[in-house]
Specification:
Lipocalin, Immunoglobulin-like, alpha+beta, 8-stranded antiparallel barrel, 4-stranded antiparallel beta sheet, about 15% helix
Length: about 600
């Protein structure tokens, strides 16, 4: 029934996908709605059977959407699944590339939702929700990142709602409930349920006679999306005019950080691929803490002139499929945004099979002039003496202490050794320095907030402060959770736990699990999984466990539960500091919305 309904409503199906744009906006013939002409022969041939194209180049649905490569890929696969569209893998890639370049998003439009492309699992969805109407409708099922990475006409947003109702009838009660209490228009200038802080309450929990003009949640969401995320924007107009193939060939310097394993530094050599938006990569990086070096070869593609998607694979004999604190990934995927000037890239590399694990990366184009990336340490105590390694590129062999500036009160007393990539120096930190972040400069180049200077560690926090892990390993993949303990110093106000506190970076701790007591005879800590000495939590397998019987009928129950993740830091004076994070271990993720095909 679902498939037949989808066939009868084929014109609605592409609405949930991202969209792609062409050189300019045109007026659709016979309508008053500006759209984007579709002129690619392959797209017209494969999509035109259902999405008719008029004489001005407007194709139904396609001309009135802009979105990310991932959403376009999902839409095309839905056409294959539900409507019998026939495509080879090469044709699918070509259509995704065309739509992403011509009906894509400007960098400013993509940035708020890019965390979804990067597969970030920490943080909270409501941190990114720009409007409560979106949270009560779209965000009920979708990552808010997918919502933020789409632009449509008001008419197409309406079709998107109808598509959801057609394919998933239960969504009708979310968009336009018949018996639920009405929802007020958040755009109303005189909202009767406005809070004291200026926020808007979406519902009338105490109203027996809600206003007659109250709108349904779906209509409020449509009003917001049509206004805040329209099809045509100044950002897209400006980017479309400036967009050009990126000249990325050359050597790039890499800096990053992997939770649980610390800082990394290395390089990426980029060479041209078969087309002007495809590239080959040779990656080398090392972990500062362990000294482990990783080498890999990869391929990538750049969509819409700035959006990098890539894959890399270490040699087969270097990869370990068992996830541990020292394991090298068997392969990773890359999602980065290229800067407007084409000289830097920022994003995340995440493991191909486990998107929850990965590295936050920053790439900068290498040149003949010196470049500074960062240091091996995150903080220096006042007073103290020690050794600091400075990572960069083209560092001069003649480097002298006077050439290096670590801020007031931090003196470089000796340059121990210098290579083009690493300078090892001795430093002396004066007594009584104020707590704060210090920049690092060598000559005319610098890196902001390279390290912190502090007097003492005030407290330790476990990051993230709450996380989800998923059981798996039998029929469904596990979802791991990585924790790390970060030390903080009280800021200028001298009070710990306030906004001016300064992060001192990760510190070594003793990890453990404790019961989060929520039911009588709680025994979750025995069954949910294990935590290693790097803060990596490995969940147990899914399915009923015969050894865990909690019900009156004595049937085995699953291994899910909630626990505290506890970090214990032993201070130099012999004292201990403890911190906790809340971990929920739940059932596998049975629905995968991943789109690995957008990477080469």
């Amino acid at each position: 029934m679902r498939i037949q309904r989808a066939k009868n409503n084929v014109a609605l199906l592409l609405a949930a996908a991202s969209v792609i744009v062409l050189p300019g906006a045109a007026m659709a013939q016979g309508t008053a709605t500006a759209g984007i002409a579709i002129n690619d022969p392959l797209t017209i041939q494969k999509c035109g059977g259902c999405h008719q194209r008029d004489s001005s180049g407007m194709m139904k649905r396609l001309s009135y959407i802009r979105t990310s490569p991932e959403v376009w890929d999902q839409a095309i696969k839905r056409m294959i699944r539900l409507n019998g569209l026939k495509l080879t893998p090469a044709e699918l890639h070509d259509i995704v590339r065309y739509l992403s370049n011509n009906n894509g998003l400007a960098p400013e439009e993509m940035k708020p939702g890019f965390f979804d492309i990067e597969h970030r699992t920490t943080g909270y969805q409501d941190d990114y929700v720009p409007n409560p109407a979106i949270q009560k409708t779209c965000n009920n099922c979708h990552s808010i990142g997918r919502v933020l990475s789409q632009r449509r006409t008001r008419d197409d947003y309406e079709k998107l709602v109808q598509m959801h109702i057609g394919l998933f009838p239960g969504s009708a009660t979310t968009f336009r409930p018949q018996r639920a209490k009405p929802v007020a228009d958040v755009n109303s200038p005189a909202h009767p349920n406005e809070t004291a802080t200026g926020g808007i309450s979406m519902e009338y929990p105490h109203a027996t006679n809600p206003p007659s003009n109250a709108k349904a949640p779906g209509d409020i969401a449509l009003d917001y999306l049509a206004s805040a995320q329209p099809l045509m924007t100044p950002e897209w107009t400006a980017w479309r005019a400036a967009m050009h193939p990126q000249k990325l060939a050359g050597t790039w310097l890499l800096s990053g950080e992997q939770p649980g394993k610390g800082k990394i530094y290395g390089s990426v050599v980029i060479t041209p691929g078969t087309t002007d938006d495809q590239f080959n990569t040779s990656v080398t990086y090392s972990y500062v803490l362990s000294g482990t070096t990783v080498k890999a070869a990869g391929k990538s593609i750049v969509y819409t002139g700035y959006s990098w998607r890539g894959r890399a694979n270490p040699p087969a004999d270097a990869a370990s499929h068992a996830l541990t604190s020292t394991a090298v990934p068997s392969g990773w995927r890359e999602a980065m945004m290229i800067s407007r000037d084409g000289n830097t890239m920022d994003g995340r590399w995440f493991w191909s099979s486990f998107g929850e694990l990965g590295i936050d990366v920053h790439l900068i184009r290498a040149g003949a002039e010196p470049t500074v990336l960062g240091t091996d340490v995150s903080s220096l105590q006042s007073p103290s003496k020690g050794t600091v390694k400075i990572y960069g590129g083209s560092l001069p062999a003649s480097l002298k202490p006077a050439d290096i500036d670590l801020g007031v009160g931090v003196a470089v007393t000796k340059v121990i050794s210098v290579t083009p990539a690493i300078a090892t120096v001795e430093v002396e930190v004066a007594k009584g320095l104020p707590v704060g972040m210090h920049d690092l400069s060598i000559g005319r180049v610098s890196v902001k907030e390279a390290l912190a200077v502090y007097d003492k560690i005030a407290y330790v926090e476990v990051e993230p402060d709450a996380q989800i892990s998923r059981l798996g390993g039998v029929r469904y993949p596990k979802e791991y959770a990585q924790f790390e303990a970060v030390a903080y110093a009280a800021g200028p106000d001298g009070k710990p736990g306030t906004d001016d506190d300064v992060s001192l970076g990760p510190v070594p701790v003793r990890w453990g699990l404790e019961e989060f007591v929520s039911t009588p005879d709680d025994d979750d800590v025995k069954y949910v999984g294990s935590l290693d000495d790097s803060g990596l939590f490995t969940p147990n397998v899914e399915g009923p466990n015969p050894q865990r019987k909690k019900q009156a009928n004595n049937f085995g129950v699953n291994n899910y539960g909630d626990v505290w993740v506890v970090a214990t830091y032993k201070a130099p004076d012999g004292g201990e500091l403890k911190a906790k994070s809340y971990l929920v271990v739940t059932v596998p993720d049975y629905t995968l919305y991943d789109q690995p095909e957008v990477a080469q």
